[in-house]
Here is the input.
Amino acid sequence: MELERERIVARLAQYVNLPSGSYDLPGLAAFTAQVESDMCALGFAVTRHSAPGVGDTLECVYGDGEDTLLLLGHMDTVFPRAESQPFCDLGGDEVTGSGVMDMKGGLLIMQTALADVLPDLPKTARVVCVLNADEEIGSGTSSALITEWAKKSFACLVFEPMRESGALVRQRKGVISFRVRCTGIRGHAGSAYLRSASAIQQLCAVVGELYALRDDARQISVNVGVISGGTAENVVCDETSALAEVRFFNPAYGEEILGKLHAICEKPGVPGTATELTVNASHPPFMATEKSLRLLALAQEVAREQGIELPAEDTGGAGDVSFASLAGVAALDGFGLRGFGAHTTKERGVLSSFAQNAKLSAALMRALIDNPDAVR
Ligand SMILES: [Zn+2]
Here is the structure.
């Protein structure tokens, strides 16, 4: 396995320095071409699924055996070009740069493990990697392909970042992301006050009710992340909108939350205003299943053989592992680069976790391929 520090740093630098924020189509095109060429070099047959407006998904297939092992990763980051930070080796065990842990490091760990595993892959096996470019915006164009392969696979490993503590991901929250748009009647706040209707007043009422959906006991969170609208303090506002999300672990809450969102937005509000709800592409929760827990136990056993105690944690961050798990396959996440500060401009990766997780995931892939029934 190629695990020299210099080589790892060079590869991380190459990936991070091809900025690929969601919707940055030229950036995504360049980065996707690089990943595609790397996957082809490993011997994968790569099919591109074009998704206008968000960038292509790569479907990479190696071998044609019956026992399919599915690997997932995303090529987009949350950083628009102007915010994207270049790669920097901070010396010691830390590196920084936009997407280094989430999840360009994970893509490279996956490839490093594959380079070790593929040359002696048994004829009975097939490895499929689905690498998308819209994960950070809900995987609206790629989730169907993930689900399709998950249904045909016996196990699914996801290379999102390892938790800061060095843990794998046991469960992820699901998210319902949405936009609320309120319209009203614009007018002079002095001379036309009685004939006007404030969209801002209505949105504020809605926002208050949204936050009332928060339920710490059931681990339901609410966040209104963006509010925009209005022109001046002496103008009654006629249009405003908010971008918001609700997160939860229990998939059973999804319907209930959606119902409440509709009820809040559909009931009569400030006279003269109207409210419109648009639900965006979102990830369902990843809840531990009997199969995923067996896969976790196997991963922990493999880690122990390498002298590593491997814990697992729950996180509020959503991800594509949910689609795979919902399709019924044994799925586990967090095999990527350990780090901290994901989604911030101070993102850091812990370099030593690269070799650790490449060795761990290679050994786990071998164990799975040798005995698919262990998690089927
Ligand atoms: Zn990610």
